[in-house]
Design brief:
alpha+beta, 6-stranded antiparallel beta sheet, elongated
């Protein structure tokens, strides 16, 4: 009786440990993909940024136009944007839906937008746009550097067939309507 109890306890602990390791492996793989995505933007490797995006996203957004938008945003002579830091808020447990795994991920992307080449009216417009998009408390103006620091709350969905190679999809509210063509309803309902 004592041997059966010890054996059962050992099996239970082993199973729990394996499950925890699997969750941590998934979490690490997703974080690695998200950090890779952020670094492609940080180092302005925008072709790699596009390659890191879930291919179905380009059924709602033209790939060439999206690449141009990235170039206009991150290689803009008027506003120099740099990625300073990335902090995860949460990485959702992957859910298998229709043969693919989906994980909803939230993080903060700390950005610096140098606006020193802009006139005062343009700076005011940029400030209003940033505050509208990210919230007044998430945007700080540094007068000495003539730059904005933005703590941008971001939500992405990581998608993978094999839980090793993860692609990302923007899950911003502004895209939610179009994402019905990209993400399963079960995932969209959680955004």
């Amino acid at each position: 009786m004592k041997t059966k109890l010890i054996t059962s306890l050992f099996i239970l602990i082993s199973t729990f440990s394996f499950t925890q390791t699997k969750v941590n492996t998934d979490d690490q793989a997703i974080r690695k993909s998200m950090v890779y995505f952020a670094n492609t933007i940080k180092y302005k490797k925008l072709d790699q940024t596009v390659d890191a995006i879930y291919p179905k996203f380009f059924t709602i957004v033209n790939k060439d136009q999206f690449t141009q938008m990235l170039n206009m945003t991150y290689n803009n002579p008027f506003v120099k944007i740099d990625v300073l830091d990335m902090k995860f808020i949460s990485v959702g447990k992957p859910e298998l839906v229709e043969g693919e795994n989906f994980s909803i991920t939230s993080y903060y992307l700390k950005l610096k937008a140098d606006v020193s080449s802009m006139n005062e009216q343009m700076k005011k417009s940029v400030s209003e746009m940033l505050e509208k998009k990210y919230g007044k408390g998430s945007v700080e103006y540094l007068a000495k550097e003539d730059a904005y620091i933005i703590n941008a709350p971001m939500k992405m969905v990581a998608v993978s067939k094999d839980k090793k190679d993860w692609k990302v999809v923007f899950a911003d509210k502004e895209y939610k309507k179009q994402l019905t063509k990209v993400l399963p309803k079960k995932i969209l309902d959680k955004l």
